[in-house]
Design goal:
single chain, 421 residues, alpha/beta, 6-stranded mixed β-sheet, 6 strands, 38% helix
């Protein structure tokens, strides 16, 4: 996986050092799915960036479901278009089918490494880089446990109280935010009224709220496991007031996060067609819950501000200044985007390190393997064989490929041990 230094990318106009709302500022979409979210997302990364540029958005986070296959294409398209800055991330689902998704945004090189570990573990059940890991498949993956283990260098946006409660006290408050989608604003019950219950001022109220949420979420946890052979469907929006209350109680901030599956409003038909193909259903019989909640396009800044107008803020450790018109939940998207400046360096090979005993280097270990093989194959060992080996080993060392050759040897040996032909 790429692990080089961050690729320099200047902050576009409209992003300030404190994430303050000011004239010309625009929000940053932090949960965008492209066509790499197979049979769910519609557009290529370039098309999403073009839409962002037309709306004057300063950056865009591509967060495909359970993988980051579009990351390279996003970075390349951003360099070509010279507009919205790319933010690397992914949306993680729980294979058990339990509610809640985590949008993982990369802050640093270590965050990129941890995102790759999370995505590998989501498919295999554990980190394949751990020699003692048992790769039992997706059923061995628990979303909350994985986020607790591999979170350094990541900002986590979560869309369900279950995840806020599971991460409370385990991660720094700055590292987790409640992701409030426009669709969540329509799920309020008739009794709901915007306003704080001040649970952050009353520890006993916080405890009661946590117990209430735990009972509710335990009942919701009886979910059908996701199909491991298909991209999970779009996440369902959770009640906005409940999510805001959970953010207050746990000490996390909230942020406006439109859940985008196509660039323009006209892409909805294409999204629904893909959802029908995925489900093997007729369009006329397609249940709405199999598609992304509305709105599912990349909204303009004014459109998003209108949607979140009057929604109370939960600042947590992410206070922002606003211009009096822009909701704080929208302004906070820029502050989060400012923290996510890292993009992996492309066009370079980065091989994993190899643990060796006795102070050996990858080159010396490879030489030992090569000469052992030569002695076994060539009897007697002739000078021209030694010269050829010296030339090839020196070339491998100069190019930095020695760890790669040792890794291939270990894979081949393991395959032989488990009788893979």
């Amino acid at each position: 996986m790429p692990s080089g230094p961050a690729t320099p990318h200047p902050l576009p106009v409209g992003i300030g050092r404190a994430g303050a709302g000011h004239a010309g500022a625009r929000y940053v979409p932090l949960r965008v799915h492209g066509h790499h979210s197979f049979l769910a997302g519609v557009d290529a990364p370039a098309a999403l960036l073009q839409r962002a540029n037309s709306l004057g958005l300063p950056a865009l986070a591509l967060t495909d479901i359970d993988h980051c296959a579009g990351a390279v294409e996003l970075i390349q398209a951003a360099e070509l278009l010279q507009g919205a800055r790319p933010i690397i991330g992914a949306e993680l689902s729980d294979p058990s089918g339990r509610p809640g998704r985590a949008i993982c945004l990369v802050e640093s090189q270590e965050g990129w490494r941890n995102l790759c570990r999370l995505l590998s573990a989501r498919q295999l059940g554990a980190d394949p880089g751990d020699a003692d890991a048992e790769l039992t498949g997706p059923e061995g993956f628990d979303l909350i446990d994985a986020l607790r283990e591999w979170n350094e260098g990541l900002i986590l946006l979560v869309d369900h109280p279950r995840l806020l409660l599971g991460l409370m006290g385990r991660l720094p408050a700055r590292q987790v935010l409640a992701a409030l989608s426009p669709a969540a604003l329509t799920k309020r019950s008739p009794r709901a009224r915007w306003g704080s219950r001040n649970t952050h001022l009353d520890p006993s109220a916080r405890e009661r709220l946590n117990a209430e949420r735990a009972r509710l979420l335990e009942a919701e946890s009886e979910a059908t496991p996701l199909d491991p052979d298909k991209t999970p469907p779009p996440a369902r929006a959770f009640d906005a007031e409940e999510l805001l209350d959970a953010a207050r109680a746990t000490g996390f901030a909230a942020v406006a996060v439109p859940d985008v599956y196509h660039a323009a409003p006209g892409g909805r038909d294409d999204h629904e067609l893909r959802a029908a193909i995925r489900a093997g259903a007729l369009l006329c019989e397609l249940p709405m819950e199999w598609t992304a909640p509305l709105p599912s396009h990349l909204p303009a800044h004014a459109e998003l501000c209108a949607l979140f107008d009057g929604v109370p803020d939960v600042p947590g450790p992410w206070p922002v200044e606003t211009n009096g018109v822009e909701p704080a939940l929208v302004a906070r998207t820029r502050a989060v985007a400012e923290a996510c400046q890292y993009t992996p360096e492309l066009c370079q090979a980065h091989f994993p390190s190899i643990d060796l005993e006795g102070g050996e280097s990858p080159y010396s270990a490879l030489c030992s393997h090569a000469f052992d093989g030569a002695r076994e194959r060539y009897k007697p060992l002739r000078p021209e064989v030694i010269r050829r080996l010296d030339h090839e080993l020196s070339t491998i060392d100069r190019l930095g490929f020695a760890p790669y050759f040792l890794l291939c040897e270990r894979i081949a040996r393991w395959a032989s041990e488990v009788e893979i032909p």
